[in-house]
Amino acid sequence: MSGHGTPIPMTSRKGEALKGAAHVPGDKSISHRSLILGALSVGETRIEGLLEGQDVLDTAAAMRAFGAEVTDHGAGRWSVHGVGVGGFAEPTDVIDCGNSGTGVRLIMGAAATSPITVTYTGDASLRSRPMGRVTDPLALFGARAHGRQGGRLPMTVVGAAEPVPVRYAVPVPSAQVKSAVLLAGLNAPGQTVVIEREATRDHTERMLAGFGAELAIEDGPEGRVITLTGRPELRPQDITVPRDPSSAAFPVCAALLAEGSDVLVPNIGLNPTRAGLFTTLVEMGADLSYENLREEGGEPMADLRARFSSDMQGIEVPPERAASMIDEYPVLSVVAAFAKGRTVMRGVRELRVKESDRIDAMAKGLRAAGIEVEEGPDWWIVHGRGHGDVPGGVTVESRLDHRIAMSFLVMGLATNAAMVVDDASPIATSFPIFEALMTGLGAGIARV
Ligand code: S3P
User: Fold this and answer.
1) For 41, how many CA atoms within 13 A lie in the half-sphere containing its CB?
2) CA–CA dist 65, 432 (Å, integer)
3) Which residue, 15, 192, 212, 216, could crosslink 444 as a Cys pair with Cβ 3.0–4.6 Å?
């Protein structure tokens, strides 16, 4: 929802070692896609382990507004009775995607090739984010968008009554843009082709194939070329959502930083387009291992085991790894503060247009907490002070950004003085059980 409730200040401090198992919620990316693809199928899709964070609940509400029957059966079990490709009804009210860039961009794509007019909005964070990256390719299908200056929400999109297929090279590394074009292509006749120079998370492609769409993927000189045949009849699926590696990142990094910790994070999806953080942490010298490696539902999975690591070193993160860990740079920068030497992060311009400008938000908070940070438009460098030598003791702003809030709360578990986050309420968008899960492991996290 676009309203923002009462701020919830939270604090975190050094204390006990973290011990136990951290059962993190379902994957956010896969949860959104399960609801949307379910709504575009004819018949009943059943979902287990859906993330019940506000972002995904807003997508569920949107699918109802387009005419799908979405039912919450309790304990992460949901069902969606879809209306089929091309079957979306025109919503009678504004679609409010709250804080979710993924939600609004994917839904815009899915609705853009139907003859309906839809107005979208979101919270202050979402209303500040660029939508032109999605409405530009949607215009090629014949959809017309009217938004605020700079292509911001609120925005009305008049869907194409007679959509044409599109060939589109995505100009920024963005799975949201790629997915919006593919979802729009579903209701265009003929073949829609999307080309991405750098591979981004591929859940849309995998799930479209699973729902029965005809999809071909080739690696060529231009990059990854995805060809989708339009107007398929999508078949409903039974989906078990893997647990979210981007949420796992927080208890994993907390365990690396809090003395004496040993935490197991079971059943984590390790799709290579998502797992870059864990590779990076191992390169820094983290005591992190994959146990029980296996494959489930076509996705690699493992239990992650993270133990306190007093001797990590800063590294240069290869820029070509950025897409596979784009949401994890905030918490990586916190780990980097406790490593020795410089951690260099390049090729990360996209961090400036997330729920907040994440380079700016983290750099300000890290500096206030005693860490030197250098930054440019698409790079930043954190000068680590090593374990036991990070002052902390400040209040930082979360800026309506769940990952900024969680990153600084993880940081406070190892700084010399406690950290305070001015508003931890955005955590509910992606990780509603964060506080309970972390305190259950023994973390000194509390409301102020
Ligand atoms: C997502 C794509 C990424 C990521 C976001 C989820 C998705 O955004 O940051 O949290 O599910 O497609 P971009 O596509 O803007 O990189």
Assistant:
1) 26
2) 24
3) 15
- Those residues with Cβ within 8 angstroms of residue 444's Cβ, 6 or more apart along the chain or in another chain: 12, 13, 14, 15, 16, 412, 413, 418
Same fold, 10-26+243-447 and 28-229: yes
Is 202 considered catalytic here?
no
Report helix, strand or coil for 321.
Answer: helix
Residue spans of the domains in the chain: they are 10-26+243-447, 28-229
d(CA 247, CA 306): 14
Binding pocket residue ranges, ligand 1, CB within 6 Å: 29, 102, 174-176, 179, 201, 326-327, 350
User: Considering only CA atoms, which of 343, 333, 338 is closest in space to residue 404?
Assistant: 333
CATH of 10-26+243-447, one of 3.65.10.10, 3.40.190.10, 3.30.390.60, 3.90.1150.10: 3.65.10.10
* Sign for the pseudo-dihedral over CA of 211, 215, 219, 224: negative
Reading the chain (448 residues) residue by residue, the pLDDT tens digits are: 444 679 999 999 999 999 999 999 999 999 999 999 999 999 999 999 999 999 999 999 999 999 999 999 999 999 999 999 999 999 999 999 999 999 999 999 999 999 999 999 999 999 999 999 999 999 999 999 999 999 999 999 999 999 999 999 999 999 999 999 999 999 999 999 999 999 999 999 999 999 999 999 999 999 999 999 999 999 999 999 999 999 999 999 999 999 999 999 999 989 999 999 999 999 999 999 999 999 887 778 999 999 999 999 999 999 999 999 999 999 999 999 999 999 999 999 999 999 999 999 999 999 999 999 999 999 999 999 999 999 999 999 999 999 999 999 999 999 999 999 999 999 999 999 999 999 999 999 999 9
98: which 2 tokens?
């709250």
**Annotated catalytic residue, options 96, 123, 202, 327:** 327
Atom of ligand 1 nearest to the CA of 201: 12
CA distance 445 to 422: 13
Q: In whole angstroms, what is the distance from residue 91 CA to residue 65 CA?
A: 5
Q: Whose CA is nearest to atom 9 of ligand 1?
A: 327
Q: Whose CA is nearest to atom 4 of ligand 1?
A: 327
Measured distance CA(318)–CA(191) in Å, rounded = 35
* Alpha helix segments (H runs only) across 284-401: 329-337, 358-368
